[in-house]
Each structure stands twice: as C-alpha cells, then as structure tokens.
C-alpha cells in the first residue's frame, strides 16, 4: 500500500485527518524516546549521587560530593541538609522548640519529591490526549472514506461486488 495514495486520491478532509494522525504518532514516539533517555540519565545520576553520599566520611564531604549534581536524590539530600541547618539555627526559639527535628525534616523533605515528580511527568498530558483521541480521529477517517466510496458506487449506478472491489483498490 502506498501512503502517497492518500494525497493523490483523497480530499482535503482525508489529507488533514491523515496528517494529524501522522503528527500525533511522531510526537508520541519522540516523547517516549525522550522520556526513556531522561529516565536512564536520572537513574544513573541518582546512583552516582547516592554512592558519593555513602562514600563520604562526614556530611560536609557528602555535601561537597553532590554540590553540582543535578540528580533528584542529590537535590533531596541538599534540601535535607539545609533543613537540618535551619532547624539547628532556630532550635532555641519558641517555634523551634515546639517542632521536633524529625518532624521538621520530614515536612521539609516531602516538598522535593512532589516537585521532581511534576518535572518527570512533563508530556504525560500529550500522551493521554493522543491516546484518547487517536482512535476516534482514525475512525472518523475510516467513516469518511466509506462515505465517499458509497457515494461513488451510488453515482456509478452499478451496485455489484466488482464495483466495490474496484473502488476499494488504491
């Protein structure tokens, strides 16, 4: 089957429908490939950052080891260390006394995964939209083609299987 037949024999609606489906397919494949590469990079960066933190002999070394890392786990570690410093600076104040360290760290650290998850989910709206609309757009194209085939059969005046077969061939 030649794909160019759509543009040679089809009308404007059929060409737009076909082009839209091709664009949706290309965008989906691009996004899937991009997300796959980003996921592999993120996993690798997380593994390296985690190894650097556990290989450090103290928190200062750990912080220096992950200072330039863009890994999500490195960001989480940096935010945890900053929250620890913040709590230690304000531990003597009235609010610092009422909030235990573990609760303060838990609240401070919970914000980072939500932000990282939102960043990692970029493009999911496009995939969901394409996945939910593509079948209906394809069905529209099929119905449009059948409509024109039946119109051609009706205009030819001959309704038999040979006419249908001739019109169905590209």
In short:
With 170 residues, the protein is mostly helical. The chain has helices spanning 5-9, 12-55, 59-65, 72-89, 94-98, 101-120, 124-156, 161-168.
Structure, described:
The protein has 170 residues and is mainly alpha-helical. The chain has one domain (11-168). The protein is 82% helix and 0% strand. The chain has 8 helices and no strands. Helix 2 runs antiparallel to helix 3 (59-65), helix 2 runs antiparallel to helix 7 (124-156) and helix 4 packs antiparallel against helix 6. It is rod-shaped and about 95 Å long. The mean pLDDT is 83.
Structural class: mainly alpha
- Point out poorly predicted stretches: none
Oligomer: single chain
Query: What's the count of strands?
Result: 0
Tally of contiguous helical segments: 8
Can you give the mean pLDDT? 83
What's the story with the biggest beta sheet? none
> What's the order of the H and E elements?
HHHHHHHH
Beta-strand content estimate = under 5%
N- to C-terminal separation? 7 Å
Shape call: rod-shaped
For the CA atoms, what is the radius of gyration?
30 Å
Count structural domains. Answer: 1
Portion in helices? over 70%
């Amino acid at each position: 089957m030649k794909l160019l037949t759509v543009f040679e024999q089809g009308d404007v609606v059929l060409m737009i429908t076909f082009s839209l489906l091709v664009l949706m397919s290309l965008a989906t494949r691009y996004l899937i490939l991009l997300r796959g590469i980003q996921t592999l990079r993120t996993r690798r960066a997380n593994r390296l950052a985690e190894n650097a933190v556990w290989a450090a002999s103290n928190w200062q070394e750990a912080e220096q080891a992950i200072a330039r890392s863009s890994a999500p786990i490195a960001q989480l570690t940096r935010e945890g260390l900053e929250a620890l410093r913040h709590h230690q600076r304000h531990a003597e104040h009235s609010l610092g006394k009422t909030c235990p360290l573990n609760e303060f760290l838990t609240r401070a650290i919970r914000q980072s995964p939500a932000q990282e998850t939102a960043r990692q989910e970029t493009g999911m709206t496009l995939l969901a939209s394409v996945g939910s609309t593509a079948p209906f757009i394809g069905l529209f194209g099929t119905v449009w083609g059948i409509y024109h085939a039946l119109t051609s059969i009706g205009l030819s005046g001959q309704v038999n299987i040979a006419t249908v077969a001739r019109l169905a061939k590209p």
